[in-house]
Amino acid sequence: MEAPWIRIVDLAPHEGQEVTLKGWIYNKRSSGKIHFLQIRDGSGFIQGVMERTAVPEETFQAAKGLWIEASVEVRGTVRRDERAPSGFELSVSDLVVVSNPVEEYPITKKEHGIDFLLDNRHLWLRSHRQQAILKIRDRVILSCRTYLHDRGFLLVDSPILTGSIGEGADGLFELDYFDQGKAYLAQTGQLYLEAAAAAYGRVYCFGPTFRAEKSKTRRHLTEFWMIEPEAAFFDHKDNMALQEDLVCHVVAQVLEHCRPELAFLERDTSLLERIVPPFPHITYDEAVGILQKLGSDIPYGDDFGGDDETLLTQQFEKPVFVECYPKGVKAFYMKQHPEREDLVLCDDLLAPEGYGEIIGGSQREDDLDRLLGRIREQKLPEESYSWYLDQRRFGSFPHSGFGMGIERLVAWICGLQHIREAIPWPRTIYRIHP
């Protein structure tokens, strides 16, 4: 009887049975009478033990000649082994070599420089560490989408090519769009979501966004993925409550489903287990005061840089909301504070442990005259925003939303030193290959 093809992640119900695995050799060690084959198949990792006396000699010799990353079909009996990371081993009875590499795999156990690994990112993705990170990323995205769907948010895809500037003219990737003039790679889907919220009430988009900032920090990419909810009749406080609940939900889901991956990354999960409501709230004014007492030379009225965010978040064990920034450092569409004309109703949610901003949000300006005034103040092209202003001309309503950067969230949850590991193909000011 033919042994069924099973993925490593699904081996548990087949204990004591003979199965077939299809995957790759990621490590191997041998003695004269036994081969220990480390096998991966994309769903997990397992050790296959091949004893010389248990297989034909040609099969044993074929295994001896395997290079790292050879693709194979392996048949064997599933045995429980509590010492193994997967909880099981495979007693190998047969092996078919699908393809053996023509040369030695370039990524070895020795220490490699980051540039070498990024040049070989297409191969580096096969490593156990990168698989752990990307499985957590997958869980983060799935958790976000399920959370929003279950709360009545409709997915609305926003355009990547746009004629409207969402976050200010700095940091735009610009191109000529046939005979239509200039177009830009989207910095955000928000303006389009505001129109969709007028139609469907609660909406969100999820996709790539682009910032042409020449930033070299460990928190910045030129292309990243962002999830952006927008909700009709949500005010500033409703908006922050949604952010808090979403972040707590995502962290809880990762803790529930990705414990092995967090353990492999040596992540201190006790720090993540603290991520429960309520989160602390401070105003921009209070944040500047805290920073200045801690030795920062930030003047009042400036936006926070990475060092300021790091210093601030080190004072808290949970994510912290910083609310109500000066109007001059925030986007034109944010609603004016009802008690102070110099401030807007916005928030940044900063992750603890020095990871900084993971969410930026605001209540949107629903007053036509004020919004038009802000567009003129910032010398933005009014004609490009005529459709956006229609939302205030025809049935204006209070509404709020935010953008959460997936890579920053993943970097914090995984405890990564640099955001470039949180995305399969990182794009920075120095890198567009592979």
Distance between the termini: 44 Å
CATH topology of the largest domain: BirA Bifunctional Protein, domain 2
Give the class from helix and strand content and strand pairing: alpha+beta
Find the CATH superfamily of the largest domain.
Bira Bifunctional Protein, Domain 2
Structural domains: how many: 2
Q: Low-confidence parts, pLDDT < 50 over ≥5 residues?
A: none
- Approximate helicity band: 25-40%
CATH architecture of the largest domain: 2-Layer Sandwich
Q: How would you characterize this protein structure?
A:
By secondary structure, the protein is of the alpha+beta class. The chain has two domains: 8-99, OB fold (Dihydrolipoamide Acetyltransferase, E2P) (Beta Barrel), CATH 2.40.50.140; 121-422, 2-Layer Sandwich (BirA Bifunctional Protein, domain 2), CATH 3.30.930.10. The chain contains 13 helices and 16 strands. It has helices at 57-64, 114-119, 121-124, 128-150, 190-200, 236-257, 259-264, 269-272, 284-293, 306-313, 368-377, 386-393, 406-414, and strands spanning 18-30, 34-40, 45-51, 71-80, 88-99, 154-155, 161-162, 174-176, 182-185, 202-210, 223-232, 281-283, 320-323, 346-351, 356-363, 399-405. It has an eight-stranded mixed sheet, sandwiched between helices. The protein is elongated, with a radius of gyration of 26 Å. The two termini are 44 Å apart. The mean pLDDT is 95.
